[in-house]
Write a structure and sequence with these properties.
The protein is of the alpha+beta class. It has one domain (8-160): Hotdog Thioesterase (Thiol Ester Dehydrase, Chain A), CATH 3.10.129. The chain is built from 2 helices and 6 strands, in the order ββαββββα. Strands 1-2-4-5-6-3 form a 6-stranded antiparallel beta sheet. The radius of gyration is 17 Å and the shape is globular.
């Protein structure tokens, strides 16, 4: 995976729950395209909601992969539900909480909650986290697919980037 949409894992209950965070920075290139200034409006950088969904997919995917020691190639099979109610802006932090709902040899289903943490303001202090959405996902264990298709032996899903994420979060990563 080339693009990482989570910055750190802050909690892991193996086989049950994973909590990750993403700090949104104005230094991220994609924010300048969403939405640039026009004659009628000033620039309005927001985190695209599709990337928020991807952040949850990475969070939940790591949880599902970790459940069996990253021996399976875990791929997102379906976004069963994605309900986001608010935009995320530079300076904010997203907190993704993924829980496993069902786990079988062929895949898993997860439920996710997305929270937005706004930066502290001098006149207001720290802001409480606000739930801005729910995202339910289905994952497939690629090597246990029903088609009988064969895939490369190496686990191309969990890359060195994911290994670095795990290790810098204090979680052993042997894959």
């Amino acid at each position: 995976m080339r693009w990482m949409w989570i910055d750190r894992i802050v909690e892991l209950v193996p086989g049950e729950k994973l909590v990750a965070i993403k700090h949104i920075s104005l230094a991220e290139e994609h924010l300048h395209d969403h939405f640039p200034a026009t004659v009628a409006r000033k620039p309005t950088p927001i985190m695209p909601m599709s990337l928020i969904v991807e952040g949850m997919a990475q969070t939940a995917g790591v949880l599902v992969g970790h459940a069996e020691g990253f021996k399976q190639k875990v791929v997102l099979a379906k976004v069963a539900k994605a309900d986001l109610t608010r935009e995320a802006l530079p300076g904010c932090t997203l907190r993704y909480t993924a829980t496993i709902e069902q786990f079988t040899p062929v895949g898993a289903s997860t439920k996710g909650v997305v929270e937005l943490i706004e930066p502290a303001r001098p006149d207001q202090g720290a802001q409480p986290a606000e739930v801005i959405g729910t995202i339910d996902l289905l994952f497939s264990h690629l090597d246990n697919n029903m088609s009988g298709a064969r895939y490369p032996e190496e686990n191309f899903v969990f890359s060195e980037s994911f290994k670095t994420l795990m290790e810098t979060s204090g979680i052993a990563a042997d894959f």
